[in-house]
Design goal:
heterotrimer, A mainly alpha (372), B mainly alpha (330), C alpha/beta (234), A: 372 residues, two-stranded antiparallel sheet, 5 strands, B: 330 residues, mainly alpha, 11 helices, 4 strands
């Protein structure tokens, strides 16, 4: 049961990230019927903006101490990421998508693929292809590396100790810890007495904390989007444009502005997803947007593309299904052994094809008559 | 010289792929961004068949009989590869072709990714490490020439088949589907059947390309058949001119040669890069920037000329007078 | 109030309007009649800035509005009630009305005009929380008209307001239009139902294959033999 809950938590936090990214796909598709292939790259650019902001304004540069400093620094980095993604999306829409809006869906999709390729490869040129750790030790308030360096009793005091990386050699230890897990101070001495050589840090972010951050970010975004779409003039205009662009023009809706804002908001929320993605896996590179982007798109299709609640639901569902397949995917049927644990990436695509064939409008989507 | 022969072979393999894709995309308006999936199916089927039938027929002391057998094994591999790929085309085509343009694109992408994941996980296909394919047909100095010939014949066959298919009644039906699907349905064109036929045929040509590739390279790696490959193939078709086979051929050759030529030229350009310590000036070879240039070409092309460089112009118009083109009743 | 000077509009290669000129004076109802495909809706859409103009000028209250985006045109006071009503089925009745007032910056003003609209069409108040798609045809036409009025137009463009309505409802709609004019609104009316349109209009234009052929006081057109045979079915 614990294992199940653990997997569920993991799946939910990954699913939340998918959901945040999926919102951008679904909003843009809703208003202009474009599969914005470059959305995953907006997410990537946002993560890098957050990373460099965190590097420029580390917690040590904050006027506060400890957790507060880390929180303030993270908040600034997130704001920077969100704004960068939004501005980039508006610029891309303006420069590449608006001129071809009437040229047809295939031309639009190809342009989007072009933008995606451009951002990936431009990113590789600018920041290099290798991956980086999002939270680096220099950004952490205090750290203890290599426990064995300290004499028993000399370990610096901290609120919480997190196991950074679990060395392979230590798997047979009695005290079973996983990387990213919090360790109580009293257990540290115990580990040390067993002669463990491992890297600890006083990173204040356990995986559990990350999970809570991610899930509450999703909840906040849900509330924000709900209010935005339901109760604001912009939300009304957006729904009107998605139903009938020309009809909205008759009403005096500034369609171009609605589309720009839709891109901005979708990408900004995706940018938040990008920071959380980098935080969750503690890694980022110029191609990091591709796979999560595709999966988020699948989540959007699963939930019903064009529907914001659908994207949120689809994201969570996809995250959980993927994780459970990996966790419970090895079983025996008769005498044949099945092992699906390495098929993680195929799960999403299978879900996609199944949903496209059985219910192309998705779980919450409405069927739309083809306009002649 | 040897290098040139390799490039010719590779371009011919690409032509089989883009020819088939041109049929699928250029003439029916269907967007497939999973064409490398069919290619992978062909290549791995051929690799598997050759491994089974001709593990080491061409050892140093090979007899004339075993040489003949290895040719037969290659032929069998080609047939199996084409069958397997068209079967996949049918499998994807029949259910997915009811989907509209951009959804179909995503479905084909999903399919090709599933293929790749399956290959990576299948031990009998070498998994992520890749699969060795024993030499067939011939070994030694003449080998590369023989394979250049085989690839050229394959490319010629593919392009001719695609061209004939396009100028037949079938071709006109396909064009009518691209122009207006609903109207052609009303005119009695069996839209689904034509779509499926062109899809299966395009897949079969990809299978042929896969078989030649497998036998020629002698080694298959799953990452070769990824999403990027599909996008590259699609770009060749799109840049050349949607619906123009001449354009597809030119774009395939050009988009293959340009990066190779850049690599050869070794031009370096100054670039700025962003490190943890801030901006830093450096330089990079132009060949490494190719993908950036490539993406820019695609975007600019879509903005300025969404129908592709040549549009639907064909080289045959140079020697055909307009009034000799087949009329609607023919 | 509105002056259209030798306007030409193309649909791809097809010339949809050729050198069309038209005047609307303040307080008038001007009817635009003509067969299907004569270019009536095209003319209204180009006035509203939805279809780009090829040549010619559109001048509203002394300001040249040719080529302006549609949202600016709504802001200066030209509002169109489009053909086929174009109700947003995914919005409630009230949201549809509020959307009509998207050009109004003043929220208090929007609130009062909304109340006015409900007073004018009490039926809509009853159904304010209902989805726009669930209304009957007549109610949808009411909603479409009310939505057009929310933006406080100076010139109202009505495109086929009677289309698809039962005769009794048609009468009601035309009564409403006459009432609106009595309150001082200027109206440019496009109608298939030429007889009904000419009865309430002051002046009228006949549009044939993209060009104006006949124009004059509505009463004259009503009695003109050419118009009678072609459009009144007499």
């Amino acid at each position: 049961m614990d294992f199940f809950l653990e997997q569920l938590g993991n799946g939910l936090s990954k699913g939340s990230i998918f959901a945040l990214i999926a919102v951008g796909y679904t909003m843009v598709y809703g208003v202009i019927r474009l599969i914005n292939f470059a959305h995953g790259e907006f997410v990537m650019v946002a993560a890098f903006a957050g990373y460099f902001c965190l590097g420029a304004l580390p917690p040590s540069a904050m006027p506060m101490q400890g957790y507060w400093a880390l929180g303030a620094s993270m908040a600034l980095a997130t704001a920077c990421a969100v704004l960068t993604a939004g501005v980039l999306a508006v610029a891309v829409e303006r420069a590449a998508y608006r001129p071809i809006r009437k040229a047809g869906r295939i031309a639009a999709l190809l342009t989007a693929i072009g933008v995606s390729l451009f951002l990936q490869n431009f990113g590789i040129q600018v920041v290099g292809a290798s991956d980086r750790a999002f939270m680096q030790e220099r950004q952490l308030p205090r750290r203890v590396s290599a426990l064995s360096l300290y004499k028993p009793g000399d370990i610096p005091p901290a609120d919480i100790y997190v196991l950074h990386e679990w060395p392979d050699a230590a798997t047979d230890l009695e005290i079973a810890f996983r990387a990213g897990e919090a360790i109580k101070p009293e257990d540290l001495a115990d580990l040390q007495s067993q002669g463990v050589h491992m890297v600890f840090s006083l990173c204040p972010m356990t995986d559990g904390l990350k999970r809570w951050i991610i899930i509450s970010a999703l909840a906040a975004c849900c509330l924000f989007l709900h209010c935005l779409v339901r109760y604001t003039a912009f939300g009304r205009s957006m729904r009107a444009v998605s139903y009938d662009i020309e009809g909205a023009q008759f009403m005096g809706v500034n369609v171009n502005r609605v589309i720009s804002l839709t891109f901005f908001i979708g990408a900004a929320i995706g940018g938040l997803g990008g920071v959380l993605l980098a935080l969750f896996y503690n890694t980022l590179d110029p191609l990091m947007g591709l796979i999560p982007g595709l999966k988020a798109f699948i989540a959007a299709v699963l939930g019903g593309i064009g529907s914001v609640p659908g994207a949120l639901l689809g994201g969570l569902l996809l995250g959980v299904v993927e994780d459970l397949v990996v966790a419970y995917g090895h079983f025996e049927l008769g005498s044949t052994k099945f092992n699906l644990t390495t098929y993680r990436d195929a799960v999403a695509y299978t879900v996609l094809i199944t949903i496209l064939l059985l219910r192309p409008q998705g779980i919450l989507g409405r069927e739309r008559a083809q306009k002649l | 010289m040897d290098f040139a022969v390799h490039h010719v072979t590779y371009v011919c393999i690409l032509l089989m792929l883009t020819g088939g894709l041109s049929l699928i995309h250029g003439r029916t308006g269907l967007l497939s961004i999973g064409h490398a999936g069919f290619w992978a199916v062909g290549a791995y089927t051929a690799g598997f068949v050759i491994n089974r039938l001709a593990p080491d027929l061409l050892a140093a002391d090979a007899t004339a009989g075993s040489r003949l057998l290895s040719v037969a094994a290659f032929a069998a591999a080609v047939v199996c590869a084409m069958l397997a790929a068209s079967l996949c085309g049918l499998l994807v085509g029949v259910p997915c072709l009811r989907l509209r343009g951009d959804y179909l694109a995503i479905a084909t992408l999903g399919f090709s990714e599933i293929i790749r994941v399956v290959i990576v996980n299948a031990e009998s296909l070498g998994g992520a490490a890749g699969m060795r394919v024993p030499a067939v047909v011939c070994v030694g100095d003449t080998r590369r020439f023989v394979f250049a010939g085989i690839a050229a014949a394959g490319a010629a066959f593919s392009l001719l088949m695609v061209r004939n298919l396009l100028s037949s009644t079938h071709g006109r039906a396909l064009i009518s589907i691209r122009e207006d699907e609903v109207a052609s349905q009303l005119l009695g064109v069996n839209v689904t059947r034509y779509k499926v036929v062109s899809f299966v045929f395009g897949a079969a040509l990809a299978g042929l390309a896969g078989a030649v590739y497998a036998a020629y390279m002698g080694y298959l790696a799953p990452r070769e058949f990824g999403f990027m490959k599909s996008v590259e193939l699609l770009l060749m078709v799109v840049l050349g001119g949607i619906g123009s086979l001449t354009g597809t051929v030119l774009a395939t050759v050009a988009l293959y040669i340009i990066p190779e030529a850049l690599r050869f030229a070794e031009w370096s350009v100054p670039v700025w890069s962003l490190t943890d310590a801030g901006w830093r000036r450096g330089s990079v070879e132009l060949a490494e920037l190719w993908m950036v240039v490539y993406a820019i070409i695609l975007i600019v092309m879509m903005l300025l000329r969404p129908q592709g460089l040549l549009g639907s112009w064909e080289i045959s118009r140079l020697w055909k007078k307009p009034n000799q083109r087949p009329d609607a009743t023919g | 109030m509105l002056r259209v000077d030798s306007l030409s509009v193309n649909y791809g290669a097809i010339r949809a309007l050729k050198d069309v000129s038209l005047r609307v004076a303040p307080g008038e109802i001007v009817a635009l009649i003509g067969a299907n495909g004569a270019g009536k809706s095209t003319l209204l859409k180009s006035i509203s800035g939805i279809i780009p103009v090829r040549s010619g000028n559109i001048v509203f209250q002394g300001e040249n509005i040719t080529g302006w985006p549609s949202h600016r045109i709504v802001k200066v006071g030209i509002v169109q009630v489009p053909e086929g009503r174009r109700i947003f089925a995914n919005l409630t009745v009230e949201e549809n009305l509020l959307l009509g007032g998207v050009a109004l910056r003043d929220r208090r003003l929007l609130k009062t005009t909304l109340e006015e609209a409900y007073d004018l069409f009490p039926r809509l108040r009853e159904r304010r929380a209902q989805s726009g798609g669930t209304l009957s045809g007549g109610e949808q036409q009411m909603l479409s008209l009310a939505r057009g009025l929310i933006a406080r137009p100076r010139l109202l463009l009505l495109d086929e307001p009677s289309l698809g309505l039962a005769p009794k409802l048609v009468e009601q709609i035309f009564q409403r239009i006459a009432d609106l004019r009595a309150q001082g609104l200027t109206i440019l009316l496009v109608e298939q139902n030429a007889a009904a349109a000419l009865k309430i209009a002051d002046r009228a234009y006949v549009l044939e294959t993209g060009a104006t052929t006949i124009n004059g006081p509505a009463a004259d057109l009503l009695n003109s033999p050419a118009v009678k045979t072609a459009y009144l079915g007499v």
